[in-house]
C-alpha cells in the first residue's frame, strides 16, 4: 500500500535558496524551486544520473539475454522455432509439442 509522504524541506536542493512557490518535490526527498529546474521538471537532477545508469545496466542485461536466446536457437536447436517466454527459452518442436 502506498503511504502519504510529508515534504518539509525549506531549501532548494541545488542552490540552497529558500523554497518559494511553485516548488517541486520529488519522491526521492529532494525539493527545488521550479525556476532552478529549468525545463527538466520530470526527474530529480540529483538522482537522475544514478537511475539512468541502472536503466542502462538493465537494458544491457536484456540485450545479452536476447543474444543468448538467438545463439541457442541458431546453434543448439537448428531447424526449430525458438522464442522467449517469461525469461525462459522455449523451443517449439511441433505445433502440438513444446517445452520451456
Write up this protein.
The protein is α+β, with helices and mostly antiparallel strands and 100 residues long. The protein has 2 domains: 9-42, no CATH class; 48-99, no CATH class. It is 33% helix and 18% strand. The chain contains 2 helices and 5 strands, in the order ββααβββ. It has helices at 34-37, 48-76; strands at residues 23-25, 31-33, 81-85, 88-92, 98-99. The strands form 2 sheets. It has a 3-stranded antiparallel sheet, covered by helices on one side. It has a two-stranded antiparallel sheet with strand order 1-2. A hairpin with a 5-residue loop joins strand 4 and strand 5 (98-99). The radius of gyration is 24 Å and the shape is elongated. The two termini are 34 Å apart.
In short:
This protein has helices at residues 34-37, 48-76; strands at residues 23-25, 31-33, 81-85, 88-92, 98-99. The chain is an alpha+beta fold.
- Helix percent band: 25-40%
Radius of gyration from CA coordinates: 24 Å
What low-confidence regions span 5 or more consecutive residues with pLDDT below 50?
93-100
Please indicate the percent range of residues in DSSP E strands (runs of 2 or more): 15-25%
Helix count equals 2
Arrangement of strands in the largest sheet: 3-4-5
Largest sheet: 3 strands, antiparallel
Query: Kindly, what is the distance between the CA atoms of the first and last residues, rounded to a whole number of angstroms?
Result: 34 Å
Strand segment tally:
5
- Average pLDDT reading: 77
Tell me, what's the shape? elongated
SSE arrangement, N to C: EEHHEEE
Overall domain count: 2
Structural class designation: alpha+beta
Amino acid at each position: 500500500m502506498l503511504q502519504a509522504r510529508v515534504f518539509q524541506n525549506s531549501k532548494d536542493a541545488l542552490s540552497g535558496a529558500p523554497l518559494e512557490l511553485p516548488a517541486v518535490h520529488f519522491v526521492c526527498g529532494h525539493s527545488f524551486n521550479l525556476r532552478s529546474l529549468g525545463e527538466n521538471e520530470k526527474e530529480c537532477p540529483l538522482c537522475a544520473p544514478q537511475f539512468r545508469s541502472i536503466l542502462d545496466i538493465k537494458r544491457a542485461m536484456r540485450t545479452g539475454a536476447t543474444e543468448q536466446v538467438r545463439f541457442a536457437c541458431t546453434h543448439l536447436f537448428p531447424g526449430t522455432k525458438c522464442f522467449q517466454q517469461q525469461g525462459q527459452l522455449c523451443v517449439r518442436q511441433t505445433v502440438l509439442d513444446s517445452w520451456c
